[in-house]
Amino acid sequence: MIPRHERDEWLMAQVAKGDRDHLEPLIRRHANPLLTFIRRMVGDRHQSEELFQEVFLAVWKHRGQYEYPRPFKPWLYAIAANKCHAQFRTRTIAAAAPLDDDDAAASSPDPSPVETAIATETAALVSAAVTRLPAQQRTVVVLRIWQGMPYAEIAEVVGRAESTVRANMHHGLAAIRKYLEPRLGQT
């Protein structure tokens, strides 16, 4: 069990009081998963890095709105989702390019060139399908599949009932399936 003084909520309570030193552990702890979430939401590495910085700037700027012992992670992801949604409203998302780095990793340590090409193409198709989803569905699908959040936590992030989140997940996955089936030659 994490000691109370190292938990996210306690650290954020200190940040809310104006203690900048406690923001750094939060940034370090949440950097990779949050950046991955934002990147999957917007489909662009550079844009996601800018939004990541904007998210933590907003955390600092709105630190007084944090209410201890409210769970920090859903609060953080709600800020990130709102930043992504604002970006959607002001700018068209780039056509989904395959997410590079580790996003198209194959299951075996030494995949053949054909397996690598198929995995890369499939990852690009999935990325394109996700970026075509409406913002709310995209948020729910990314948080559930890539961030592994439970539905109750996602409901906190998006400010909706858990049943609505489950419906968004269902419709999002159906839309992804509908997009992928003709492109992957499935019936």
The number of distinct helices, counting runs of at least 4 residues, comes to 8
Q: Describe the biggest sheet?
A: none
Shape: globular
| Content-based structural category | mainly alpha
Q: On the 0-100 scale, what is the average pLDDT?
A: 85
How many whole angstroms does the radius of gyration measure? 18 Å
Strand content: under 5%
CATH architectural name of the domain at 1-96? Orthogonal Bundle
Level-1 CATH class name of the domain at 1-96: Mainly Alpha
CATH superfamily of the domain at 1-96: RNA polymerase sigma factor, region 2, helix turn helix motif
Reported by name, the CATH topology of the domain at 1-96 is Rna Polymerase Sigma Factor, Chain: A
Low-confidence stretches: 92-108
Helix content: 55-70%
Spell out the helices and strands N to C: HHHHHHHH
Separation of the first and last Cα atoms: 48 Å
Total strand count, please?
0
